[in-house]
Amino acid sequence: MLNIPSLLCLAFLGFALFKPTKWLLIAAFALPAFGSLAILPPALTGGISLLVGAAAFMFLLAKVMMTPGGFSGVVRNAMTLKYMGLLTLFTIVAVIGAFTLPKIFIGDVYVIPLRPSGRFLIAEPLQPTSGNLTQSAYLVISFLTAAVFAHLTKTKDFARDFSWAIIAGGAVTAATGLMDLVTSMVGMGDMLDIFRNASYAFMTEGEISGVRRVVGLMPEASAFGTVAVTNFALLLFGRNLFSQEMRNKVVMPLALLCGALAGLSTSSTAYVALMVVVAVYFWTNFRRLNIGTTEEKRQALGEFTALAGFALLGLILILSFEETRNTLFSLVDTMILKKTQSASFTERSSWNEWAMNAFYGTYGMGVGVGGVRTSDFFINILASTGVIGAFFFGCFLIKIVFAKTRMADPQLLELIRTSKLTLIPILVMQLLVGTIPDYGVVTGALFGVIIGAAYAVKRKPAPQPASPPASPTRVRRSPKTEPIPKA
Questions:
Q1: Coil, strand or helix: which one is 444?
Q2: Is 198 helix (H, G, I), strand (E, B) or coil?
Q3: Which residues of 81-109 are buried (b: 16+ CB within 10 A; e: fewer)?
Q4: Which residues contact 14 (CB under 8 A, 6 or more apart)?
Q5: Is the separation of the CB atoms in 277 and 263 below 8 Å?
Q6: Measured on CA atoms in the order 331, 336, 338, 340, is the torsion positive or negative?
Q7: Lowest CB count within 10 Å: 94, 255, 293, 345, which one?
Q8: Which of these, 330, 215, 318, lies nearest to 264 by C-alpha position?
């Protein structure tokens, strides 16, 4: 039976399907914060949890396909090598391999499966599983998202709609994090259980060094940390899509709130990604101080001064109290300095070793999408899709890195810049905790934005109707009459 939040999300998506595309675009970036909420009860979908975030992207795909020129535009993006062709080839190789490789190498190699047959994650003989189907479906959805966004980026007002979408994503992520934080502080955390109907193992009550981990509405703290960092990066790197007033009053405060909540998740992956975001931010601002325009230099200097002041004030407050000072030192020691000595680090490292052994055992062909668990997204790509799949995906990433627009359009330039810089922390997080070969719908959307903006062409103005020729008839005027002005 559907619960109330699922019904509300389904009703909103159905309503937005018949509204302008921006409504579903906003929903696609806002609803992933509900990472424990399935749009349909898992009992109706064979135990598969179709989350509301993924459902929003699927509704967006359907909406674009129904619009005039949408289907042909998406197909053209997918089938053209200079657009999404390399990602298309990767997806084809991955899906074919998911249904053939486990049968070819059944029992020949051992892997750490996505869904263990027992209570513990131990190496088991390779065999076809339901994960081959579900992971292939997720991968196809992510690919279609990339193709659809490549089409949307070329449409009118996309930059404006995209900016509102990332505002909505940051606002909902921050709201869910604060809800979890406040309800747990007053002992009413069970109120949020209505948002958790997915068939996942929930870890919502964890603590590290006496600090309660902020989970939001995700299954676990590390999942919330990655979502919060992603929205932090989108808002921070996409701040120039907004006016200065909007940037100062809404975008930057919301970005800092998402960053702070990511820190409160006490996820080591989120901490590393936060450091990457800050490093990239200072690197880009330093370049603007050196080679930017006068306005860009002024803006960069102002941001440097404001953020440095906030950082210094926060550090003084933390170090001023013994309790907060000891908590900070304990967190750094546990989550960063001693992370490599933890049992979880050892276990995750063993996943990668088994995956690479399986890759060599299949002569570089791979074990199929959904056939192996890793803690490194790129190792999973290699172990799942083999040399051929990894080659196509690697070539596509290189294409993304060097993609740039041929037009001097400031909006397209900002879209490419925002998407590229945001992909850096996302790929770093997938490098650290990527258990499956699916890069995800948000990453797929950023892929599509970069390709769409890079190959956008200047729109031709609509043809105007020709003016009727002037009448050759001469107008007789009286000498006393004022001359009639010509049209």
A1: helix
A2: coil
A3: eebbbbbbbbbebbbebbeebbeebeeeb
A4: none
A5: no
A6: positive
A7: 293
A8: 215
- Concatenating the DSSP letter of every residue in 250-287 gives IIHHHHHHHHHHHHHTT-HHHHHHHHHHHHHHHHHHHH
Distance CA 213, CA 215 (A): 6
Residue whose pair of structure tokens reads 């603007």 in the numeric block: 288
Q: What is the DSSP letter of 147?
A: H
**Sequence-ordered alpha helix ranges (H) in 153-267:** 158-185, 221-237, 244-246, 252-264
CA angle 218, 281, 427 (to 5 degrees): 45
The per-type count for the chain, helices as H runs and strands as E runs, is 17, 4
pTM above 0.70, yes or no: yes
Rounded mean pLDDT of 417-436?
Answer: 91
CA–CA gap between residue 158 and residue 172 (Å, rounded): 21
Give yes or no for residue 482 having a pLDDT over 50: no
Q: Is the dihedral of CA 43, 48, 50, 51 positive or negative?
A: positive
Coil, helix or strand for 211?
strand
- At residue 408, what are phi and psi to the nearest 5 degrees? -85, 55
Of all helices (H) and strands (E), which one includes residue 124?
strand 124-125
- Contacting residues for 351 by C-beta, under 8 A, at least 6 apart: 112, 121, 373, 374, 375, 435
CB 36 within 8 A of CB 218: yes
- Cβ atoms of 161 and 411 closer than 8 Å: no
For residues 269-276, give the mean pLDDT: 88
The distance of Cα 26 from the centroid of its chain, to the nearest Å, equals 13
CA distance 30 to 254: 14
Quick check: 169 and 33 in contact, CB under 8 A?
Answer: yes
Mean pLDDT confidence for 366-374:
90
CB 83 within 8 A of CB 77: yes
**14: buried, middle or exposed (CB in 10 Å: 19+, 13-18, 0-12)?**
exposed
Helices 377-402 and 343-361, axial angle in degrees (round to 10): 80
Element (H, E) at 207: strand 207-208
Q: How far apart are the first and last CA of the chain?
A: 70
How confident is the model at residue 329, as a pLDDT? Answer: 61
More confident residue, 275 or 463: 275
Q: What is the mean pLDDT of the chain?
A: 83
Q: Any residues with CB less than 8 A from the CB of 401 and at least 6 apart, and which?
A: 420
Unique residue bearing structure tokens 């299949």 = 362
Are the C-beta atoms of residues 242 and 290 closer than 8 Å to each other? no
Tokens 């080591």 identify what position?
Answer: 268
Q: Which of 424, 272, 245, 402 is nearest to 345 (CA)?
A: 272
